[in-house]
Amino acid sequence: MYGLPHRGAIAYGDCYLGEEPDTFLGDAIVTAHEWEQCQKWFGISVAPRSLDAAAAAFNNLPGLYPSAVPTKSGDQDTIVININDVLFGDVETEGISPERDAIISGFNKAWQAAKRNASRGVVQKYRSTASMWRQLGLKPPLDEGDAVFSL
């Protein structure tokens, strides 16, 4: 995960996880897949259809924030997961760890490569991610249009 942009979704509902490898069936699996595909940022969030169940299951866990997520049909309110807080604790109380720094550094390197080589859609996902990270408390550098981050 370090250095690689990622996108994911969490959904709640009935599902079947088979004993055979890679056998996953059910509404929750489909909902998670559809939500992951419609997001236009790199991050992890809860499918809006699953918000009530997620709020009950995630009650007061660190690293979870209500936020609007950019999607193909516009921003949608949900719960986002600040993976940095989940993995390494709140930066205000835990400080900056080498692992947290590695994630930011990896994102910056991937962003620079995308600006040189990627399609407009991919670049927009980086910009959306940059905006979300600002909302979650990561401080951008002086050149805000560049969307590269530092702590």
Strand content: 5-15%
**Alpha-carbon Rg, integer:** 16 Å
The helix fraction, in percent, is 40-55%
Whole-number mean pLDDT: 76
Please provide the ordered H/E string of secondary-structure elements.
EEEHEHEEHHHH
Note the total helix count.
Answer: 6
Shape: globular
Largest sheet: 4 strands, mixed
What structural category arises from helix and sheet content?
alpha+beta
Lateral strand order in the biggest sheet: 1-4-6-5
Note the gap between the termini. Answer: 19 Å
Low-confidence stretches: 140-151
Kindly state the number of beta strands: 6
Write the layout of secondary structure elements.
Blueprint: E1 8-10, E2 16-17, E3 24-25, H1 27-38, E4 44-46, H2 51-57, E5 64-69, E6 76-81, H3 83-88, H4 91-94, H5 98-117, H6 120-135
Parallel strand pairs: 1-4
Antiparallel strand pairs: 2-3, 4-6, 5-6
Q: What does this entry look like structurally?
A:
By secondary structure, the chain is α+β, with helices and mostly antiparallel strands. The protein contains six helices and six strands; from the N terminus they run βββαβαββαααα. The strands form two sheets. It has a four-stranded mixed beta sheet with strand order 1-4-6-5. Strand 2 and strand 3 form a beta hairpin. The two termini are 19 Å apart. 25% of the residues are buried. Mean pLDDT is 76; it is low at 140-151.
